[in-house]
Design brief:
The chain is of the alpha/beta class. The protein is 62% helix and 8% strand. The relative contact order is 0.12.
Length: 215
């Protein structure tokens, strides 16, 4: 599995328009989407978003090529440790290469089917944490998702896979101690339950099975 960091304006626009207003886990607009609306009104078009993206990058002197190289170099420093530990925990291996689309948006969707996720054009260490968070969803899916989403339904599966990212804080403290993976407010109790179960059993299958009983 290899991550390829890239920036495509049309993908940035898509992310901003489709996930800026709201998402499955939050009904609140992102900061960047609010800025877009402030400039172009409540129903921005693709052209509006394209103009906004160009102007934002220019006004903030964002060197896209430099950022891409920085993110790739930073990820290379942590990927082996992350992949080895994730494989140990989930007992699965990601074999497909994954594209990381960079975006101005503050919300980062992903697609396991199409092997991509988004990451913010942000400080280097923030993108590293985003990559680990999003890949956690990939590992969760290949271990549990195909069967469990059908059994539990999309909402319950979503809640549990989001809660499972709390384990990043204790399994990779060198990356998350200063800026922990906080998750969404509605998953707070479930995240605490997952953490407690992991500390007791250190077995992802048991953690999942017992956490399911909590939702």
């Amino acid at each position: 599995m290899k991550l390829t960091f890239t920036y495509q304006e049309e993908r940035d626009v898509w992310c901003l328009l489709n996930y800026g207003r709201s998402s499955m886990n939050s009904s609140n607009p992102t900061q960047r989407y609010e800025e877009l609306v402030k400039s172009f009104g409540e129903s921005p078009t693709e052209q509006d978003a394209g103009t906004f993206v160009k102007e934002y990058i220019n006004n903030h002197n964002i060197d896209i090529s430099k950022r891409i190289n920085q993110y790739a170099d930073d990820w290379e420093k942590v990927e082996n440790l992350f992949i080895v530990r994730a494989k140990e925990m989930f007992n699965v291996q990601l074999t497909e290469d994954i594209t990381v689309y960079l975006t101005l948006n503050n919300r980062c969707p992903y697609s396991i089917e199409k092997n991509y996720f988004f990451a913010r054009l942000a400080p280097v260490d923030s993108v590293r944490r985003t990559a680990m968070h999003e890949l956690w969803h990939f590992y969760t899916w290949y271990r549990f998702g195909i069967a469990e989403e059908q059994r539990l339904g999309k909402q319950k599966y979503n809640d549990l896979k989001e809660a499972l990212t709390t384990l990043l804080n204790i399994e990779f403290p060198e990356h998350f101690s200063e800026y922990p993976d906080m998750g969404y407010p509605q998953h707070k109790e479930l995240r605490e339950r997952v953490l407690s179960l992991w500390q007791e059993y250190k077995d992802i299958q048991i953690v999942w099975q017992k956490a399911v009983e909590s939702i």
